[in-house]
Design brief:
This protein is mainly β. It has a domain at 40-154. The chain is 12% helix and 31% strand. The chain has two helices and nine strands, in the order H-H-E-E-E-E-E-E-E-E-E. Strands 2, 3, 4, 5, 6 and 7 form a six-stranded antiparallel β-sheet that branches. Strand 4 and strand 5 form a beta hairpin. It is globular, with a radius of gyration of 16 Å. It starts with a helix and ends in a 40-residue tail after the last strand.
């Protein structure tokens, strides 16, 4: 049976391989056979309670091209992965919520500069954080893109075995 996540991934692979807006170069598209993903992990599809920061501090995140982007530190949540405690900060941007993170697999199985998520706000200060949807920023595929660099506070010592893996162009 095809899951919602399988359909999402197939659509994304189609976009990357065929769409003119894809981050892949024409050479990369010629040999593209799909992105690399971890198997779906239901344990990493979380509903979390976010502790909002009383002071909403605006921070400047460096980007991969040396630019700066503004985000507001919104709040923090705690969760458990493979029996290990972890915590991450959610940021707010004009378009919604943003969760950049680096896990302990960075540089081995996941993109060294981290992956991204857009957590979904739920009622009562809760958020849906589905690590199965974690994706590499466009700069993982092509240096022409400018991507925010994950802040130190979102660098985890635990592995997140969900979402996109490293991109290996042929």
């Amino acid at each position: 049976m095809v899951s919602e996540l399988d359909t999402f991934r197939a659509d994304k692979d189609d976009f990357f391989g065929r769409n003119p807006q894809s981050p892949l170069s024409p050479d990369q598209k010629r040999n593209f056979h799909g992105l690399n993903y971890f198997p779906e992990n239901p344990e990493l599809r979380l509903e979390v309670t976010v502790e909002e920061f009383p002071q909403k501090e605006t921070i400047h995140m460096q980007t991969s091209t040396g630019d700066v982007q503004e985000y507001v530190r919104y709040g923090r949540f705690r969760f458990t992965v493979d029996g290990q405690e972890a915590e991450l900060t959610i940021y707010q941007a004009d378009y919604g919520f943003f969760l950049p993170f680096v896990d302990s697999l960075a540089g081995k199985e996941t993109y060294p500069a981290g992956r991204y998520l857009e957590p979904e706000a739920l009622p009562g200060g809760r958020f849906l954080v589905d690590f199965n949807l974690a994706y590499n920023p466009y700069c993982a595929y092509n240096d022409m893109w400018s991507c925010p660099i994950t802040p130190a506070e979102n660098r985890l010592k635990v592995p997140i075995r969900a979402g996109e893996k490293l991109f290996h162009p042929l």
